[in-house]
Model the fold of this input.
Amino acid sequence: MKTLGPAFNRLWGASLTTNLADGILAVAAPLLAITLTRNPVLISMLSALVMLPWLFFAIPIGALVDRVDRRLLLASANAVRCIIAALIALSISTDTITIYLLFLATFLIGICEVAADTSSQSLIPQILNNSQFERGNSRLQISETVVQGFIGTPISGFLYAVAIYLPFIANSLGFLVAAVLTAFIPVKFLQDLREEVPKNARSSFMDEIKFGVKYLYAHKLLRRIVLITASIGLCYSISISTIILFMTQELALRPAYFGIALSIQALGAILGGLLAPKLSKKFGRSKVMAVCIFLSSFFVLLQGFAPNISIFMLLATLGSFTISNWNILLMSMYQNLIPQELFGRIHGARRTIVWGLMPFGSLIGGFLANAGLRTPLIVGGTVATIISATSLKFFLSINDNSAS
Done:
């Protein structure tokens, strides 16, 4: 595997440990939640609170990313997540944990996720050249899927079975290692993309935030991609809001096997990550994106009709393959379309729209689940399929040269 340089390798190493921590948390948090409540609306609120910070903080944090050392902001976000996870473990071990304390911790971790994700994605253009974006994003996506799906989630299930607080201790240690690795990314290998502007000529923080929003609104291609992505993302959040209840109650999956189920789905995501650059090169980025976003939506709809856990896992794995392709190619398109010195602000603005809507989708899904645990998947999958089908012509019309 061809190296992408020492700065990327350090960022990649930090990403590996962060993804290990995320994989552990992805299993431990919902399993902890269903021991505290079985209310579908409260369970859906857990998903909502992870995404809600994107609505409130993505734009200001995006502007902050363009003004500060992105390495240190990423390291700080991971350090705070380390402390929060440790406090959750402490509250569990002292039997003081409640669903509402878990909600608070989830929301705070979500804020850190906004800072970490925006900083990390903004560092890519400082570390890599345009021609390396798809390889870099593919490598990050594959390692994320492998570490989360085949190491983090099974380990979490095992640790949870031994003692409920152990996954959160492991989660805390993972974020600590990531913080250290990120803080020591060699500065000499980073491109300085910020313009040298006299202090008296610099825009205020609020002016920079407004500029990012206005830029996104004025860019017709970016604006439409963001609106389509936001609409489909809302539908996906509706679909998966109570997926832990659907799998354990409707499909009779034992909670101890929840992590293994996520690992199986990761197979599709890994294959998608490996093939995304090759498929893009052979068929064109926009064509692959168009097909993948339609198929991923259709697979969500079909999951709602799955008669058993085996059929559900097959459909979920196929869905993971298509959405992995989409995510890699979409991020590469954004990194090419958005001026790199503005990336934090524009990235924050688009994430506010795309991910800021997801908490509402999660809550809608929670209420829909009261009519049956299949309902969120069927409703969300149907609407997403319609949106993606009507967007095929748009994506197929995008000239790949405009995004490369």
